[in-house]
Fold this sequence. Notes:
CATH superfamily: Response regulator
Order of helices and strands: EHEHEHEHEH
Strand order of the largest sheet: 2-1-3-4-5
Number of domains: 1
CATH architecture: 3-Layer(aba) Sandwich
Helix content: 40-55%
Radius of gyration: 14 Å
Number of strands: 5
Amino acid sequence: xxxxxxxxxxxxxxxxxxxxxIRQVLEDKGYQITxxxxxxxxxxxxxxxxxxxxxxxxxxxxxxxxxxxVASRIRDMFGIPVVYLTAFSDTATIEAxxxxxxxxxxxxxxxxxxxxxxxxxxLERAQLEKALRESEERY
Length: 139
């Protein structure tokens, strides 16, 4: 991955071990990690400051569904793609998360090849959608 084309990714995860593992996998493949946030306020401040290309978002932060709330605000305020990370795959949690129109879900524990494949596909899709929007705005 060329330096000027390195995608910037924010990790929003309150479990340090999980965040460190994800960070290591992504950095080893050349992605730039803009930071690790553990709550909504940290995530929003980091997004405003760093303007990442993608946010990896734990659905459950600090024993609440704060991740879903953060993802909704990220979509509304910044239009940045969100991929959910979750250990919860029950219908109610997935349905609540679905309402925020995430680009993908990854079930924890995260498998490196699934993480890298998902991140690559989401970044490619987001780039294509951005190009389409810009093309439509010109005409």
